[in-house]
Amino acid sequence: MKVLNRLFIVVTVTGLATMLAAVSAHAGGLAFDAAGNLFERGKDSIFKFTPDGKKGTFASGLSTYGVYNLAFDRAGDLFVSDEDSHSILKFTPDGKKSTFASGLSTYGVYNLAFDAAGNLFVSDQDSHSILKFTPDGKKSTFATGFNPSGMAFDDKGNLFVADQEHSIFKFTPDGNRSTFANDLSTVGGSGFKTNSMVFDRSGNLFESNDRGQYVIKFSPDGTKSAFASGVRGDLAFDGAGNLFVADHVSRSILKFTPDGTSSSFTVDVSSTSPDKKWEFVGGEQPRILEAGTHQVVLDLLEDRGRGGLVWAPDSKRFAFNYSVHGRRGYTFESVAFFELRGDKWVALHSPADDVSEGSQLVQPLNEHLPKKFNPRECAPDRDILEFREWTDSSTAILYAPVIGASRIN
Fold first, then answer.
1. Which strand (E) or helix (H) includes residue 214?
2. 162 in a domain, yes or no?
3. What pTM does this model have?
4. Fewer C-beta neighbours within 10 Å, C or N terminus of the chain?
5. CA distance to 113, 147, 176, per residue, from 165 (Å)
């Protein structure tokens, strides 16, 4: 009979060798309502931020992964594109939901933009067109024959649309099309998608796409320049002319003043330590913050992939699960331990520090393997050690699923 071998390893954190960890300081559709509140799409929710950054949930229970774009009409109603249900939802200011339009293309990506007359324009990638809905919901096709993504209206009523072939088209109110800009992405290849486009009060167009980590600024005559680098995501301007960027890499919303000075408006905290003094932000740039601030006190193994964190009961240690996917399908998964010493977090010795011996499991396996276990039958492309639980503040249980089969008679 073949069985999957599993190994539990108990690690006493106290007494492990230590080394200093590197510390350095380093933030969905977005839309503002008339009162200056910022709305952001979540996975199945819509969040509302007051001007001072306090976060609340405006709507929940929406289609998982379906919420794509947000836009407000002149009456203060919020319109939301929902790709899962192939519809456009409408929320009144007090949160009452209704369906404004349905039956849209099955796999379309729906960006939204309102003109000055209150007509809603919707980009539909499946039908390669832009749909127009009057305030009472009557639908027509405004333009077709290209692959639209991001959209924005200027103050003259012209509609600007990003095409997935690296261009931005300009449509006059009567539908005449011209090319406003080419070569949007510095990365080769076609099929890029603009995440967001928005105009400032001076008529400059700002654009963010999924082929680079930067926000591009186009002057009214089409001159292109880089406004911000190292970020990408959905864009929105507040009433004071500040640009907000929902940066999905750092899981933050950044605020840029008109001169380009940046600050962190809010951060998506994944967990808080039991003593409420520290916050963990996950994603592609995992880090520890001082609670209640946006001050980064520790960057967590950014080059080793995403991971989850578990706090020790006393809040003075934590375990960080992370993974690295190497060449030819090789997967390396391990646990890093950190301890608070004074006001600094330091990294403790972990099994991954012993990989020079061939595997992080070599020493634990030699100490704990049953006599009949044959390590040669384990899969050669998996080296996994997972954090299971803290039994107390100084003892951790790790889980080593040995991926392979041994025969037991």
1. strand 214-218
2. yes
3. 0.72
4. C
5. 21, 8, 19
From residue 66, alpha-carbon distances to 36, 62, 110, 235, 384 in Å are 25, 7, 10, 19, 33
Tokens matching residue 293: 């601030």
- For residues 128 and 246, membership in a common domain is answered with yes
- Quick one: 378 exposed, middle or buried, by C-beta within 10 A (0-12, 13-18, 19+)? buried
First and final C-alpha spacing in the chain: 7
The answer on 190 and 88 residing in a single domain is: yes
Instruction: Give the Cβ contact number of residue 290 at 10 Å.
Output: 13
276 domain-assigned: no
Q: Structurally, how many domains does the chain consist of?
A: 2
- Tokens 């339009």 locate to 101
Q: Where are the beta strands (DSSP E) in 102-188?
A: 112-114, 120-124, 129-133, 139-144, 148-153, 159-163, 167-171, 177-181
Report yes or no: 385 and 319 within 8 Å, Cβ to Cβ.
no
216's enclosing H/E stretch is strand 214-218
Amino acid at 408: I
The DSSP symbol for 366 reads H
Return d(Cα 287, Cα 192) in angstroms, integer.
29
Q: What is the pLDDT of residues 331-374, one digit of tens each?
A: 577 788 899 999 899 988 776 665 554 556 555 555 555 555 55
